[in-house]
């Protein structure tokens, strides 16, 4: 697909920062913080601070730093607000996409190239990222307790002994983590959702909302599985599939917030999609 | 007043960008775009893009560029969205404040020093800023038609002949422009509103909202005077003075939007105040 060039003259790092802002402003985004809803311990303004704080790490990615260094710097900057983890998953997707864009090939092949070129050092930096914020994650597989991300830099020796690159780590998680599956599957859902954002009409924040609901119908949200189990995650998909207009999406948003259901992984993917759409010229 | 140091580790440029975001997210901000209200031709997302686009110019200010160069660069970046003028007035206040903060003296004296040190070249750059966006301004005084800001760089020879620095230009406008009065009066309202934001409680976006309503009661808003005349601007002050809680502020917001009353200059000053509050450690 020939990519229309954005007329903003923003580089990829700035588009990524803007994607973080447009993602949280996309409304309604059932179960997530959006322009009209906060969660009890996570506020809209903390996402604004998280986006601005991420900018240095995103700029590093644009300028050719390694995925690991750029990601860890972005997460560290993001975490300088009181809400904790606002955009860890978004950044995990954005950093390789920014690098691919900066290298002139923002395509499934281009970003797969970036992902496959990651090193053991990148894996170590990724693990260190978990020391900056509490990230809700599931247990690792039986044979990989030494690779539990919650060990942070404590996992470094295991990563080095097993000679695992960041791409290898993503492969190990791909079965149970939708963001890892983006890494190992050419960011398929991100590119597909970007296409629907580009083909849609109206304010970008409305397009983000519709793309979010569509994504939510496709697969169980990883964060919902982690917090509530597979059954609830399947129900979330079914309930999203019943949404046919803005009013129903708003009603579902109120229900999910009340029930504590937070499909945060789906928000990560719509953020990645928004970045791609910005790079391809979606008008603001 | 001893300034508590922010624990975010953000530099002044990043705090200024965050102030732009927190200003637009401050809700309700009667008559302005806020988290729940758009104007017909000016959308929330365009302010997000304006803030991100401003960041390069703000960074120049932090790194010691002249006020004029930093301001023109920020305005040019801000204007790369379809809404037109989102944050011109905010940037006019933020740029000298960022420079003062970067020089280690974010005080009325420090920013007055920055303002008074501006040059004729800064004035020329300021005028060029008007070529990037349409800014609603009143007519210049009878004897100063050659200095009409709407002439953009066409006013350069007049500025050079009259040997006017940017500070001089602000002095000429101070009587009828509240932002120019900040420049020539030690940013008095910005510092006072920052104090009330710091002393207030709860989310910063709520504090911004309350500070906005307080500022609105103090003086006629310059943009309202420009668009609707002095009498309406005085009525706006009186109506703001009747607001005693969030519900009444929301009702006034609905009325002002319906009546096309947009107190944009007051939003500029609350943005400057938010920057000062961030530098002084308001928690997020």
TrEMBL record, chains A, B:
GO molecular function, one term: glycosyltransferase activity
Stated name of the protein: Triphosphoribosyl-dephospho-CoA synthase
UniProt source species: Haloferax namakaokahaiae
Keyword Cell cycle part of the UniProt annotation: no
Record carries keyword Transferase: yes
Keywords for the protein's UniProt record, in alphabetical order: Glycosyltransferase, Transferase
Enzyme class, spelled out: transferase
EC number: 2.4.2.52
């Amino acid at each position: 697909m020939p990519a229309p060039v954005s007329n903003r003259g923003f580089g990829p790092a700035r588009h990524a920062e803007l994607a973080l802002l447009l993602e949280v402003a996309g409304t309604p985004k059932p179960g997530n913080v959006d322009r009209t809803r906060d969660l009890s311990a996570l506020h809209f303004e903390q996402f604004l601070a998280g986006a601005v704080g991420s900018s240095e790490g995103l700029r590093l990615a644009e300028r050719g730093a390694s995925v690991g260094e750029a990601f860890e710097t972005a997460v560290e900057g993001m975490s300088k607000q009181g809400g904790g983890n606002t955009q860890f998953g978004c950044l995990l997707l954005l950093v390789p996409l920014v690098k691919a864009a900066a290298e002139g090939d923002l395509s499934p092949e281009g970003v797969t190239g970036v992902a496959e070129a990651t090193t053991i050092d990148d894996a170590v930096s990724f693990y260190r990222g978990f020391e900056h914020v509490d990230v809700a994650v599931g247990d690792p597989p039986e044979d990989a307790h030494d690779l539990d991300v919650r060990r942070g830099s404590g996992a470094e020796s295991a990563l080095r002994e097993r000679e695992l690159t960041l791409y290898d780590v993503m492969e190990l998680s791909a079965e149970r983590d939708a963001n890892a599956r983006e890494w190992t599957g050419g960011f398929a859902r991100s590119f597909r959702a970007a296409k629907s954002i580009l083909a849609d009409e109206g304010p970008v924040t409305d397009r983000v909302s519709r793309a979010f609901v569509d994504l939510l119908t496709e697969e169980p949200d990883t964060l919902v599985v982690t917090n509530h189990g597979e059954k609830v995650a399947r129900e979330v998909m079914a309930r999203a599939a019943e949404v046919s207009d803005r009013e129903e999406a708003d009603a579902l948003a109120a229900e999910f917030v009340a029930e504590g259901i937070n499909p945060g992984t789906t928000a990560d993917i719509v953020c990645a999609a928004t970045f791609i759409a910005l790079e391809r010229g979606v008008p603001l």
